[in-house]
Design goal:
It is built from three helices and no strands. With about 100 residues, it is mainly alpha-helical. It has a domain of about 60 residues. The termini are far apart.
């Protein structure tokens, strides 16, 4: 009778160990930490950020329904940032007064 529950417990432990890749000890813990960190930064955090952004937009829209809400990031001016060829590292010189 005592051997049956011990055998069952051993079978459950080996099943759980095998389902986790058969790793034991520190390597098992390290692999779970890496997998959890990747899952957080690839799935959980982006969805939380998206939800937070949607809530902020909804709060802005509900405060004043006719207010303008920015939906895109502003495009930088190509002349100012030097994106147009030949405008890099040039400073503006003041015009001489006559």
């Amino acid at each position: 009778m005592t051997t049956t529950w011990r055998r069952r417990l051993g079978n459950v432990r080996s099943f759980v160990g095998n389902s986790m890749g058969g790793l034991r000890g520190g390597s098992n813990l390290a692999s779970w930490v890496v997998a959890g960190t990747l899952a957080y930064f690839l799935w959980v955090k982006p969805s939380q950020d998206l939800k937070r952004e949607q809530q902020e937009r909804a709060a802005l829209a509900s405060a004043d329904p006719h207010a303008y809400v920015e939906k895109r990031k502003p495009v930088p001016d190509p002349q100012e940032t030097g994106l147009i060829y030949g405008n890099k590292n040039r400073t503006r010189k003041p015009k001489p007064e006559e």
